[in-house]
Amino acid sequence: MRYFVEGAGKIFAILNHKYRKTDDDAVVAMQLRGRARERYEEMKQRGARDSVIFRRLFPRDLPEPGGTPSAKVSIEIKRLNKSQLVHMILEETHLSMPSLPRLSMRDLRKLLLALRKLRDG
After folding, report:
1. Which of 69, 85, 86, 107 has its CA 20 to 30 A from that of 98?
2. Domain match, 3 and 31 both
3. pTM of the entire structure?
């Protein structure tokens, strides 16, 4: 399981690392900047494992899927456009992910289905 990706002088935290089964699964990442990047580099230099670094940088766990109960509506995911998929994913995760719209439609659908499956058990 990968917690971070480094490339082109940038470091990204993989926010959905818990939900990815393979390297082909969609990635929701956030670039480490400023103090977060400094802390990452300090801990990495001291030999800390990626899982420990991730927990220190992101001490709060992702919100549990579900939340408050609401009326359920059946939706054909194939009929949703990209902005609708992004909105639904953001509603499920309660996170700010500016890079999410860059994912392909296929990956967005796959991510939304995986999040719904986790939420519904």
Report:
1. 69
2. yes
3. 0.51
Range of the domain at 39: 1-62
Residues 89, 44, single domain; the answer is: no
Q: Where is the domain boundary, 47, 62, 77?
A: 62
What's the confidence (pLDDT) of residue 117? Answer: 84
How would DSSP label each residue in the chain? ---EEEETTEEEEETTGGG--STTS---EEE--HHHHHHHHHHHHTT--HHHHHHHH--SPPPPS--S--------GGG--HHHHHHHHHHHH----TTGGGS-HHHHHHHHHHHHHHHH-
- Both 13 and 52 in one domain: the answer is yes
**pLDDT tens-digit profile of 38-60?**
999 999 999 999 999 999 998 76
